[in-house]
Every structure is written in structure tokens, then in C-alpha cells.
Amino acid sequence: MKRLWIIVLLSIVFVGILSFPRLFLLSRVEEELQAELAAALGTEQLELALRAPWGWELVLGHIPGLSLAARNAVLEGVEAAAVHLKAEEILFQPWTLFSRGELVLSGISQLTGFLVITEQALNEVFWREVDPSRQLWLEVSPEGLALVGTVNIWNAEVSLRILSQVVVEGGALRFVVKDVAVQEARIPPLLLEAFGESYNFSLDVGELPLGVEMQGVELLDHEIKIRIGGQQ
């Protein structure tokens, strides 16, 4: 009987030792990383989940995976309605965390995800930086990004519609004019370049956390979905 109790006690101690990192260290790493990412994304609406089955991976400075979902993030003055990110094989400096309470990342194998910017958020940036009068506005559709409204040409108010494609260039979104219509009349190709320079507009969301970069863009109805990813 005594031997049985010893076995039970040793089993409890063994399970406790195995569970300790997951029960205590996982929450600490998760809280620290969540606070840093929330600050970087300018939002308090962020959910973070770390994947560390045993917890002992964290003692060695290794996070097998994480997933992030945030809403109403603010990136260099641009509001992102949603940010979703998954990362694999994250490395950090464990002793820096244990001794100074700072989480310092040293490597990430793979990052994938996307962020969503709504038509309304785009317009707020456009009006703030390009057209405070709000005579022009942006419309997003799978066809492209359209700049529409009225402009004064030779003392006459005329309707304008400039259709652009959106490309990722140098860490920013750039809008390349592909069609212009004034009073529903098409502009000859030779004038497209001139209009493109007059109504040039780009969107820079600044430096994204975890070394994430913009990789592609998809235009949907009333919103832009930007594919993000990278590695460290």
C-alpha cells in the first residue's frame, strides 16, 4: 500500500513538472506578445493564441505556432477593419523574458495572413491627404479602384471617373490609372498619363509588426483585401 502511494505521489509530481511551463509560462509569453502586437497595430481588439503543446518549447525559446485576429487596427493613420495572421516556428530569447520581462523575437519561419481596408477608410485617408473639399471619392469593386466626383475644368463643373488598378510597390499600395472618363467621354490614351500624374494617390501603412510585408492585393466590393506574409 505504501509503495502504491509513493507511485501516485511521484506521478503527481511528474505531471506537475510537465504541466508547469504550459500553465504558467505560456500565459506570460502570450500576454507579453499580445500587448506588443496590440500596441504595434494600434488596437485593443486583438485575440492571440499560441500553439505550444507541452509548454517546454517555451523554456527553449521556441513557439511552434501562433494565430492572431485583430479588428479596427490603425496603421500609419489608416484604419484596417480586420487583420489576420498566422506564424510558424517563432524563436525568441528566453532569458531576456525571464530576467527583464521583455519578449525579443529572433526568428520566424513563416508568416501568412491578410488585412482588410474598407472603402470608407480609404476615403478618409484620401480626403485628409488629397481632397479636403470632398468633391471626389473612391469606390472599390472587383473591376478596380474608381475615383469619381466633379472637378472644375475651364470654369465648368464636369463629372469625372478615373479607374485604377492597385499594385503593391515598395511596401505601399499604388494606384495606376487605366481608364479615365470625363462627362462619360473616354480620354485618349495619350492623356491618361497626364491625368494619372494629376490624381496620383498611394497608400502606405507603415512598418507592419513581426517583419510582415504586403505581398498582393485583391479588390472586393467596397473593400481591399491585402495579402501579407514574410519571414525573419
Protein architecture, described:
It is elongated and about 70 Å long. Strand 2 (62-75) and strand 3 form a beta hairpin. The model is unreliable at 8-18 (pLDDT under 50). It is of the alpha+beta class and 232 residues long. The strands form 2 sheets. A 6-stranded antiparallel beta sheet has the order 1-2-3-4-12-11. Strands 5, 6, 7, 8, 9 and 10 form a 6-stranded antiparallel beta sheet that branches. It contains 5 helices and 12 strands. It folds into 2 domains: 2-113, no CATH class; 119-230, no CATH class. The longest helix has 40 residues, at 2-41. The protein has helices at residues 2-41, 56-59, 94-100, 119-129, 189-198; strands at residues 46-51, 62-75, 78-92, 105-118, 136-141, 144-153, 156-169, 172-182, 185-186, 202-203, 213-220, 223-230.
Number of domains: 2
Q: Ranges with pLDDT <50 over ≥5 residues?
A: 8-18
Strand order of the largest sheet: 1-2-3-4-12-11
Query: What series of H and E elements makes up the topology?
Result: HEHEEHEHEEEEEHEEE
Largest sheet: 6 strands, antiparallel
Please, what is the average pLDDT? 79
Would you tell me the structural class of the helices and strands? alpha+beta
